[in-house]
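Input.
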Amino acid sequence: MSDARTPAQIEADIKRRRDQLAETLDEIGVRVHPKTIVGDAKAKVVSSVDNTLGRAYVGANRFVSELRGQFVTEDGSPRIERIVPVALVAVGVVGLLVVGSRRREH
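Output.
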């Protein structure tokens, strides 16, 4: 099989391949450049942190919703039978802390 291309066609093909090679080398140079590597690493860290914070937010939101469900009915009215005992315990703990801090002062 003979190559029926003219010298001008061969030169044009060589030029086109050189241009493609130069473009490929430029892309490789950008990819392995320290700034690109650092930028990619930063982007991965930011993405990971965003993902972690997102999961934490969803978890906290779920916890708050479940906790709220313990003290509020589905229609939004407070569950007094659950709120009063918790409030009494909170007042008792605060009272003990106040008494304890006054005893340390004397």
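Residues 7 and 13 are 10 Å apart (CA to CA).
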